[in-house]
Amino acid sequence: MPRWRTTWTGPGPVLCRRCASSRLRWERDSRAFKITYVLPSESRLFTYRELQNVYTTKVVPFSSWYAEQQRIQKMGGKIFKVELTAGGQMRSCGNS
């Protein structure tokens, strides 16, 4: 008899799906991007769009790169550097 695993699938009401644990395989992609970006200052957002000189570096998995890029650009930020790297997903590099 297979063991079943229940997982939560998103915001809102809890929707469960069941998968046999023997067939359940999570894709673990080791490809990641190390991005350096800057976001506008929230204190001067309404008066003057001034960028802070505080750069943030973050490791983003390959599969969610496009969504992260859109998030930064929609917040008015600018991406300065993108490097291909390996590491933990969505891990901050400690200089944020």
TrEMBL record:
Keywords: Membrane, Photosynthesis, Thylakoid. Coiled coil: none annotated. One of its GO terms (biological process) is photosynthesis. It is found in: Endomembrane system. SMART domains: CpcD. It comes from Griffithsia japonica. Its main location: membrane. InterPro entries: Allophyco_linker_chain, CpcD-like_dom. The keyword Membrane applies. This is Phycobilisome 7.8 kDa linker polypeptide. The keyword GTP-binding does not apply. One of its GO terms (cellular component) is endomembrane system. Residues 30-85 form the CpcD-like domain.
